[in-house]
Amino acid sequence: MALSHLSSTRSNRFLRPLAAAAAAAAASSLCRPISTSTEPLVIETSIPFTPHKCEPPSRSVETNPQELLTFFRDMATMRRMEIAADSLYKAKLIRGFCHLYDGQEAVCVGMEASINKKDCIITAYRDHCTFLGRGGTLLEIFSELMGRQGGCSKGKGGSMHFYKKESGFYGGHGIVGAQVPLGCGLAFAQKYNKDENVTFALYGDGAANQGQLFEALNISALWDLPIILVCENNHYGMGTAEWRAAKSPSYYKRGDYVPGLKVDGMDVLAVKQACKFAKEHVLKNGPIILEMDTYRYHGHSMSDPGSTYRTRDEISGVRQERDPIERVRKLVLGHDLATEKELKDIEKEIRKEVDEAIAKAKESPMPEPSELFTNVYVKGFGTESFGADRKELRATLP
Amino acid sequence: MATVFQGLGATAAITAAANPLDSNKLLLSSRRSFPGKKTSLVVVRSDGSLNLNTGSSAGARRLDQLVTNAVATKADAAAASSASKPGHELLLFEALREGLEEEMDRDNRVCVMGEDVGHYGGSYKVTRGLADKFGDLRVLDTPIAENAFTGMGIGAAMTGLRPIVEGMNMGFLLLAFNQISNNCGMLHYTSGGQFTIPIVIRGPGGVGRQLGAEHSQRLESYFQSIPGIQMVACSTPYNAKGLMKAAIRSENPVILFEHVLLYNLKERIPDEEYICNLEEAEMVRPGEHITILTYSRMRYHVMQAAKTLVNKGYDPEVIDIRSLKPFDLHTIGNSVKKTHRVLIVEECMRTGGIGASLTAAINENFIDYLDAPIMCLSSQDVPTPYAGTLEEFTIVQPAQIVTAVEQLCQ
C-alpha cells in the first residue's frame, strides 16, 4: 500500500496542472485500492467472548480483505433492502406485518461466512436478511413482500414466510418460538442421515422465555443433536425490555447443562468466529447456545414506532458506537483495503440494484385466483380437495 | 347442524335386541330431554320383534362377516376380500404394528417418535419389538414434551424424513396444537410448495372405560378445520393396517385416529400386501331404507343396532366414513341417492363435531335427494364423567340408534 502513496505523490508533482481526478486515476491505475486479495488478515474482536461451561474461542479472527469487502457489500445490501422495505410499507405496497432487521445484519452475515449451504438455518419472522444471506435474490424478496407471483413463496407466504429449500433455509415462522422444535427436527434428520452438517436455530430474547425452548434444549442435549441455538438478543421483546420479561437475561446461561457463549452480535468477525467454533463444537459434543448481543434500529415491526419503550438517544447511541457496517468500513479504511470513495460507490451501486429489483418486482403480477387452492395438499392418492366436502368455496375473487 | 334433534328415550320394549354392549342399563322408561331441543315421546313398535324380514334373513348372521369385508383398495393392490385367501388372524394393534413394520422395512426414512414407543413397546403395544429391530434412533423414546417432539417430527419431515409421531393419548396432542396447525398443516402452502410434510400423527382417542374427562377426548373435531392435513379414523384390523400404510406413504400430513377400546379387535386379514385408500369410505352393510354414516367405535354400536333393526324389518345401509377430512362424498352421495334418509352416528361432541360438518356437507350437496332431515347422534357436550353410568349416557348407545332409525323411517 506504500506504493500507492508513492505513486500518487509523484504523479501529483508532475501532473499538478491536471485535475485531481486525473491524478487519482493515474494513481489507481498503478495499484488496486479495492483489495481482492485473500492474504490472511488477523483482526481482534473488540470484546472477548463470555463462555458458559466451555472454553471460549480466541479473540483473534482470521479473515482476508476480500472477505471483509464481501461483508461490507452484503451488510450494506441488507441495510439498503430493509430501508427500502420501510418505504414500500409506508407506501402501502407491503401490508400486514413487516419485521425489519437493520442493525442486526452482522449476525446473519457472520454466520454465513462460517458455514455452507448444507447446514440448515431456521429463524423466526425477522427473516428478510437471513434469506438474502442464504442465496435469495432481491427480486424474490421484494416480490414476496408485495405478494406477487415472483416471490419466493409465490406470494402466498408474505414477510414472515420466506423459505429456500435448496440452500437449507427453513424459514420464516410467525409464531414465537415454534421454530426451535422444528430446528431440532432438522438437526435430528442430519443426525439420522449421518451428514456432517449442523442446524442453526435462531430465536429472540422474547422467545427465550417459551416453554418449548426448554423442551428443545432437553431433547437436543439428550440425543446429541447437531443444533446450535442462537439467541438474537436485541434486548426488546416487541415493547418489553429484557429486564422486564426475564428474571435471568443471561440467555447463554439458560441452557444450564448445555454450554453457551455470549458474542458481540454487532461485530461480524466475532459472529463468524463464534459460529465456526460452535459448528466444530456441536459436531463433537452436542448442542450449544450462542447469545448474540445485537440491536435493532427499527421498532419490532412497521406497526411499532420503536420509540415508546426506548429513547431516541439510545438508538442513535448504538448507531454511532456499534453499527456493524461502520465497523467494517473503519476496518477496511484502516487497513487500506479500499478508499472511502470506493465504498461509497459500492453503496451507490447497491442502491441502484435495490431500486431496480423493486421496480422489477412491481411489474410481477399478483398470483392467479386458482393459486388460492394450489399447494394445500401435495397431489397423490387422489387428494384434490380443499374443504371437508371436497369442494372449493365457490366465490368470485376480486 | 342437524335441524332436528329429538329427545330419544330408550324404552323397555326393546327386548329383541340381542344383548347390546352396554345398553342394558339404558332400558329406562323415562324420557331424556335436552335443554333447548325439541323433545317428543317415542313409541316403539311392538311388532318388530316378531317380524323378520325374509329379504335379509341371513343378515343377522352375515353381519359378523360383513363387518370384516372391507371394500376399499388401492388401485394396483391385491383384491381386498378376506375370503379370497386364508390370511392370518390378529388383533388391531398388531395390525397397526404390522403395517408400521412393513413400511419401516420398505423405506429407511420412516421413523417413529413418541413417549414410551421404544423400550416400553408402546403404551398400547403398537410399537412393541420395533426398537429392538430398528434401533433407538428410528424408534425414538421422547421425553414428555409434545410440543417439542411434534415440532421435531415436522422439522424432520421438512428435510425428507417420514416420521410417525405418536401421541400417547390424542388429548395430549393439544399441547402440540400450534405445531400441528401452523407448521404441519400450513408449511406446504406458505412455502409455495417447497416443503412437503409427509408426517403421520397417530394415537388413541375417544371415550374409553372410565378414563376420565381429560383422557377421553375426541380431537377430530378440533383438528378438522386445519387446512392442509388429512384425517382418517380406523376401525378394524384390516383398515387399520391399510390406512397406516397409506398414511405413511402419503406426501401430505395425515392424522390417524385410533380408538382406545378397539385395540383388541380380532380379525383375519390377507397375507399379501395391501393399502386402503385414504379418502374412501367403507361400505359395511349395503341396504335400502336408510344410510347410517359412522366411524371408529360407533361403527360397532351401529352394527349392534343394525341387528335389532334387521329383526324389526328395516334394511339399513351402514357406511364407515373412515376419511374424516376430506369426506368421501362420492360413496356417501350414492348412498343418499339410494336411500333418501341419513343418520349420522358419531362419538364427537354435538357442537362442532365431525357430524356437524358432515350434516352441512350433505345438506349442501344432496338436499334434493333427502326425504327427511338429517339426524345426527353425537356425544353430549359435557366433559366425560368418570362414573360408568354417566359415561354411558355421554355417548350414543345402540338403543338410541334404533329409535332414531325408526323415527326417520316413519
UniProtKB/TrEMBL annotation, chain A:
Q: Which InterPro entries match?
A: DH_E1, PDH_E1_Alpha_Subunit, Pyrv_DH_E1_asu_subgrp-y, THDP-binding
Q: Where are the transmembrane segments?
A: none
User: What are the protein's UniProt keywords?
Assistant: Oxidoreductase, Pyruvate, Thiamine pyrophosphate
Q: Which GO MF term does the entry hold, naming one?
A: pyruvate dehydrogenase (acetyl-transferring) activity
Source organism's superkingdom? Eukaryota
Q: Where is the Dehydrogenase E1 component domain?
A: 73-369
Matching Pfam families, A to Z?
A: E1_dh
Q: Which GO terms describe its biological process?
A: pyruvate decarboxylation to acetyl-CoA
According to UniProt, the reaction catalysed is: N(6)-[(R)-lipoyl]-L-lysyl-[protein] + pyruvate + H(+) = N(6)-[(R)-S(8)-acetyldihydrolipoyl]-L-lysyl-[protein] + CO2
EC no. given is: 1.2.4.1
Cofactor requirement: thiamine diphosphate
* CDD domains to which the protein is assigned, alphabetical: TPP_E1_PDC_ADC_BCADC
Listed under subunit, the entry gives:
Tetramer of 2 alpha and 2 beta subunits.
Q: What is its biological role?
A: The pyruvate dehydrogenase complex catalyzes the overall conversion of pyruvate to acetyl-CoA and CO(2). It contains multiple copies of three enzymatic components: pyruvate dehydrogenase (E1), dihydrolipoamide acetyltransferase (E2) and lipoamide dehydrogenase (E3).
Tell me what this protein is called: Pyruvate dehydrogenase E1 component subunit alpha
From TrEMBL, chain B:
Return the Gene3D superfamilies for the record: 3.40.50.920, 3.40.50.970
GO cellular component annotations of the record: chloroplast
Q: Which InterPro entries does the UniProt record give?
A: THDP-binding, Transketo_C/PFOR_II, Transketolase-like_Pyr-bd, Transketolase_C
> Which keywords annotate this record?
Chloroplast, Metal-binding, Oxidoreductase, Plastid, Potassium, Pyruvate, Thiamine pyrophosphate, Transit peptide
Where is it located? Answer: Plastid, Chloroplast
Superkingdom assignment: Eukaryota
Give the E.C. number(s): 1.2.4.1
Q: Which SUPFAM superfamilies match?
A: Thiamin diphosphate-binding fold (THDP-binding), TK C-terminal domain-like
Q: Which reaction is recorded as catalysed by this protein? A: N(6)-[(R)-lipoyl]-L-lysyl-[protein] + pyruvate + H(+) = N(6)-[(R)-S(8)-acetyldihydrolipoyl]-L-lysyl-[protein] + CO2
Q: Name one GO molecular function term.
A: pyruvate dehydrogenase (acetyl-transferring) activity
Cofactors, names only: thiamine diphosphate
- The chain positions of domain Transketolase-like pyrimidine-binding read 90-265
Task: State whether keyword Metal-binding applies.
Answer: yes
> DNA-binding: present as a keyword of the record?
no
Complex and partners? Tetramer of 2 alpha and 2 beta subunits.
- Tell me the function of this protein: The pyruvate dehydrogenase complex catalyzes the overall conversion of pyruvate to acetyl-CoA and CO(2). It contains multiple copies of three enzymatic components: pyruvate dehydrogenase (E1), dihydrolipoamide acetyltransferase (E2) and lipoamide dehydrogenase (E3).
Record protein name field: pyruvate dehydrogenase (acetyl-transferring)
Kindly list the organism's lineage.
Eukaryota, Viridiplantae, Streptophyta, Embryophyta, Tracheophyta
